[in-house]
Design goal:
The chain has about 180 residues and is α/β, with parallel strands linked by helices. The chain contains eight helices and seven strands. The protein has a seven-stranded parallel beta sheet with strand order 1-2-3-4-5-6-7. α5 links the parallel β5 and β6. α1 packs parallel to α8. The radius of gyration is 16 Å and the shape is globular.
């Protein structure tokens, strides 16, 4: 596996249009420093950076936004702290969670995932019912299964393990983007 900086650069050059920093085990100081390093690379390509879970790190680093999980603060609380200047995304696992003011929603896990092996798999119907919202399918997405998400009307995908664990992340990103273009 490549150094994270090389993986990041290859993914962006291949067409990745947004980066989410998902480091869960770093101290706050380490995470801020890491996010700033990611931001420096992404800024060279005008690619937005989203930080996972941590509104404090978003505000400290001034990246593009934050993605909140089910155990994080509410979108409304985050919006009070961030204002409208930043993107706020939210992961949803059930239809009742779909509309609550996020700029986008992540729906899933759609497939078994190395990133979250114990995540419950979301029904494809949830993805189809959320098409009125700006959404991303998440969880266990690979070049082999992305096409079925796009075929169901999915507008975008968020991919972690397939890219991060690859020795050739640029080819994974290209294959994922090819799946998107085959469905349009």
């Amino acid at each position: 596996v490549l150094a994270w900086q090389d993986t990041l650069k290859q993914a962006i050059v291949a067409g990745c249009d947004c980066v989410q920093v998902r480091e869960k085990k770093m101290s706050t100081r380490q995470l801020i420093n890491h996010v700033l390093k990611v931001k420096r690379i992404a800024d060279k390509y005008s690619v937005p950076v989203i930080v996972n879970d941590r509104v404090d790190v978003l505000l400290a680093t001034k990246v593009s936004g934050v993605h909140l999980g089910k155990n994080d603060m509410s979108v409304q609380e985050a919006r009070k702290l961030c204002g409208s200047e930043y993107i706020i995304g939210k992961t949803v696992h059930a239809q009742k969670d779909v509309s609550f003011g996020a700029d986008y929603i992540g729906i899933g896990s759609m497939f078994p995932s190395q990133t979250k092996p114990s995540a419950q798999i979301a029904p494809l119907g949830l993805l189809k019912n959320a098409l009125a919202y700006i959404h991303l399918a998440i969880g266990g997405i690979t070049p082999d299964n992305a096409q079925q998400l796009y075929a169901s009307g999915c507008k975008g995908i968020a991919v972690s393990s397939s890219i991060a664990h690859s020795k050739t992340p640029e080819y994974i990103v290209r294959d994922l983007l090819q799946s998107e273009h085959q469905s349009t």
